[in-house]
Structure formats: structure tokens, C-alpha cells
# Entry
Amino acid sequence: MIETTEPRPAAPALAGRPPAALSLLRRLGAVRPAYWVLILLLVAITVASPAFLEPNGYMNFLRRAAPLVILAAGQLFVIVVGGFDLSVGSLITLVVMAASLLIQGDPAQTWWVIALLYAIGLAVGLVNGLVVSWLKVPSIIATLGALLSLKGIALAWSGGSPQGYLPDNFRDFGRLTWRGIPGIDLLPLAVIVMIVTVAILWWLMHGTVLGRLLLAVGDNPRAAELAGTRVRLVRTIAFVVSALSAVTAGILLGGFAGVSTNVGDGYELQAIAAIVIGGAQLLGGRGTVPGAVAGALSLAALFTLLNLIGLPKPLRDAAQGLILIGAVGWSVWRRRRGGA
Amino acid sequence: MRIGMMIGAAALLAVAVGGAARAQSFDDPKEFAAQRAMMSEKAEGPADKPWEQHIGGGMVDTAKYKKPGPYKLCFSNAGVGNPWRVVGWLTMQAEVDIHKGDIASFTVADAEGKDDKQISDIKAMLASGKCDVLIVSPNTTAALTPAVEEACKQVPVIIFDRGVLTDCPVTVVKPIGGYAFGIAAADYIAANVPKGGKVLALRILPGVDVLENRWAAAKRILDEKGIQVVGVEFTDGDRAKTKSIVEDYLTRTGKLDAVWMDAGATSVAAIEAFEDQGMAVPIVTGEDQQDFLQKWKQSGMKAVAPTYPTYQWRTAVIAALRVLKGEAVPGPAWSLPQPTITAENLDKYVNAKMPPLHYAMCGCEGMPDYPQRWTGK
# Structure
């Protein structure tokens, strides 16, 4: 994929216009559509329910969006190298079921089980990465297989229905909120987890060599390989990052709502949709962590807005689909026109 | 702006379509009245064994099915895809163990929630010749009817849980019904929430007859009392979704006086939504799941738990054996008592030693291997 990154020579043609207004317009135009979509949705939510502007409103929103934000930021690594990771939803199910089966309500077990959950995530990411990189199975197939097997393992292990329960210190990741904090009043633990995770992923993608290698491999694997990049290793790392972020999302979701066999269902597609709204390119080579985060927040805002407006479920699904297509269409159209 | 217009248009459309297309078929005033009457009727049979009791209805003569034992039982199960069915299935296996002397074999096919699999399961079991009697828990009503009719020609058939559209089975075992469930929960709300109070109704999914009946009954009662139903939402039985919906309604309406639920699986999630906002928990209705009963007891909240007792899985086996022994059974519908758990009898059912998703109304406490069989240990 070859793209021009030089600024467009548009200024001379418009030389007669007042420069201040022009530069403002241009600057507004340069803001990614994801942010516009997010701002529009947030304004709409505020109109539908002014209580959203109070700490209770927006902190709850962030707390609920946290799992999807983390998942999208992790999935971005795989998308950027030109793959898909469909296994994350099932991995979340497995994480929550495994946590409840292993902890059995005993708070003393929580910490080693969380360590084990990350080990499971590491293993799943490695297997996905190895199958894609060395067996050359297309990632959409490899991770679809993983989706089915992980779900199957989770259901077989638990006997098909939720067993055991999660103690309060595990549930805290999704439920604990500190109150009475100066300035913001409320601070949910899940929001802190989200900020820390996103900061780490942002640094990995935009502050390290790894990030540049990921983009290079996604842009043109052959060229990257000729330039001496260890393409297979880079791809595998991307799948590991995605799986580990899914474990984090799973811990938050299990904390938020407790044990159920359908936790995580559909999250893989939501994460991918969020990334596309965020301006990343499917099939690789382009994408940013802030974009993915904005995309995920937009999606969460959309769900919240549709809940608030109170449309019946079928129309809500239809509206959701239309808005998704609209947002992504806008991104693509804008890019083709030659923007960022 | 455009998004706003689109949503506005969609909303108008929704109101128009929703108003016109509301089906009446799931809201039958006669059936509502009949089930309400049954709720206060005294059950016949041993009081300490509700799974052997029946309310109203006649007896069916089964002399023509009489044959010497031990018997070969066959069971076509719709699936074990939710905790209610898991508890029921464990209870049924225990019932079979109780009658070891009478039962030569117990052949089971799990349809995994698929109509086509259940139809071929039934055919295969009958063709194997290993069935003196066939017990069916149908996956869906209409789809399974022809297969059940076919089976009736070969062996006596016992249906339980969901129904079929034929009267060929010897008897159909079921609790009083969906209306009674909805009535029990809505009556409690109507008695404890003032006129004009705000109630959120949470349902699992649309289109299942027993669930539609639950809501139809509740809506009738809440409307009569003048209680405002601020929303009716489908949760898909998903705890996270349930919690989010309740939080959104709290943001939107400021306060709720009660949450009515058509099934208890996500009641605890609804309660947690209030807790996490630092709000007092209002009335939340549930079911006989231990996690809900324990939460209710700990918090001292106001609640009620209608039940759809899992002990009906015992009754199906008992009915099958009676039919083969030529003993009369209640029929053509064997309506079991459908108790409601209230603050007064809560202590009798709450049991912290059982798993959170165990259903208290299993009637399994005196059965072989209790409680290990149900705790999964």
C-alpha cells in the first residue's frame, strides 16, 4: 500500500480567502472523523440526559466502556499487522469462567488466579501467533478456530452453566468506585485500569521500535522482511498483546457483572468495529491507539445513547448498524479524498 | 444533526409499528383468570411432596399401558443450556436412581437446543426398541408436535416443561403456568409501590410463550394499579447488559421504585446496579436461584421470588413409571403447585452451601447424593 503523506498543495488556489478562517477550517477538517463522531454522540447523550455531565454520568460511562477500550487498543496491534483476532470474545468467556471455577469464592485465591489468567492469555496469543506466522493459516480462520475452541473449553470445563462465584476483591475491578475525590468526585478502579493499560499500549505502538515494525509489516510484509524485520516474531507479538488485553478486559467484565456463560459474546466484532471507526485500515499498515480508543468510546456512547432514547431493540440494532456504516464510510471517503 | 434526524425518524416509526403490531395472542384474559384461581386452590396429594401433588384436573386411566417391569425409560431432552435445566436434569437423574429396582434402562438424548436434532433423537430412540415409555421436554412447541404425534403411536408419551400442540401424550406435566409467575411478582409490586410509582420491566427475550404470558399478566396488574412502567427491555439473560440497562434508566429517570423481572437469572445484576451507584435497593423480583435468595437475605431488601419449580423433572419420571404400572395419573394436564418465596418463608429456601445458580425449588433435599450431586463436587 503506497500512500502520500505530503501536505496537499491546496493553499494557493484559495489565496484570496482570509487566512485565519481558512486555517481554522483546515484544522477542523484535519480532526479525525472518529473524534467528530464521538463528540456528536456525547453531545446527543447530554441532550437526551443532562445528568451525563455530572461525575456519576460520565464516570459510569467510562467504567462501562473500559473493557471495550482496552480490547480495541489491544486488537489494534493485530489489525495494524494486517490480521484479525476473532478469539478475544471467547477468551473473555474463558477468563471469567476460569476465574470463578478456580477461585470458588475464596478471596485469598484471587491473586494467583489472576496471574494464571494472564498465563492463559499468553498461551492463547502465542498459539494464535504461531499458527498464523508459521503454519501460514489466514488469521481470520485461525482465530475463528480459536474462538470456537476457547468457548468450547469454557463450557466443557464448567459443565455448560456458570459454577462458583467471584469474591469481592475480584469483583472490585469492575465495581469499586472511590467517592468524594476532590475535582472529579468519583473514580472507578476500572477507569484507572483502562488509563494505565491504554498508556502502556500507546507507548508500545507509538514510542517503541516495535510499533514501527508492526506498521512496516502491516504495510508491506515482503519489504519489511527484505529490510531484515523478523516478520513472524512481530506478528506473534501482536497476537500476544491482543490476547493479554482480552484477559484484562475479561477481568473487568467479570468484575462488573459476575459469572455468566455469555460474557464476552460479540466483543471481538465490537472491537474491530471500534478500530475501523478509529481510522485504522483493515489489512494493515495504518492505525493509532488514540484512534482506536476514540472508536471504542464512540461505540460505547452509541450504545448508551440508544439505551437512553429508548428505541425498541430491533430498531436499536438497525440504527446501530446504519450509524456504524455511516461512521466508517465517512472515514474511508475522507481518506480517499486525500486526508490523514 | 443527521444522526439526530435519523434517530427521530426511527423513533416515530417505532411508535407507529409497535402500537399496531402488538400481538394479543399471549395475553388471554381467560387463561389469566384460570391461573390466578389455581394459585389459591389447594393441591391434592402428599403435602410434603409437592412434585407428586396436582391442582385441579382429572385423572387419566392408564390400564392399557400396563406391563411387567423393570422398565426401559427414554428421555428426549431439549438441552441443558441454562442453570435451570442443569439443576432439573441433575434432579431427574437422582429420581431415576431412587427407582433403580423398577428401571432396567434410562436412555437419554440431549438435543442441545436444536429442534431438528430433537426430532431425529426421538426417531432414533424409538427405532432402537429400547423404550417402554418416552419422556419429552420439547425444545419448541410447534416444531416438535409432529415427532411427538408419531411417538404416541408407538409408546406412551409424557411431556413436561414446555408444551406441544397435540393431546396425544398421556399427560403433560407443568407448574401452574406463565401467567401465575407474572401475577406473583406483579401483585407484590402493586401492593408495595404507590400509584404512579416507576417500574422497570426486564425480560430475557421475546416470543417464548411462557415468558410472554409472564409479562402479559404483570402488565395487566401494573396498569390496573396505575403504576408507571418506565421501560420494558430485553436482557438476553446477560448480566452485564442487565446492569447497564438499569444504570441507564437510573440516569434517565433518577429513581426506580421497583424492577420486575420475568426470570431471576439476572436479578442480582440488577441489584448490583443500585449498589454501585450508592443507591438504596428498591423492590427487585427474582426467582429461586440461590445467589438472589442470599443477596435478599443479606441485604434485607424488599423482594419476592415466584418459581417455576425444577421438581417437575422428578414428576416426569414418576408419571412415566405410574403409567407403565397401569396406575391412574393426573391428566391430561398435571398442574404442579407453583410456590412463591416471600420474606416469611425465605429462610426455608436460602442455603449458602449450595452453588449460586442452584434453584432452591428442586425438591431434591432428601434425594440420593444430596448435596454433592448438585454442588458439582
The longest helix of chain B spans residues 2-21. The mean pLDDT of chain B is 89. Chain B touches chain A at residues 3-4, 6-7, 10-11, 13-14, 18, 80-83, 86, 231, 233-234, 236-240, 242-245, 247-248, 251-252, 254, 268-269, 272, 275-278, 291, 355-357, 376 (CB under 8 Å). Residues 78 and 139 of chain B are 5 Å apart (CA to CA).
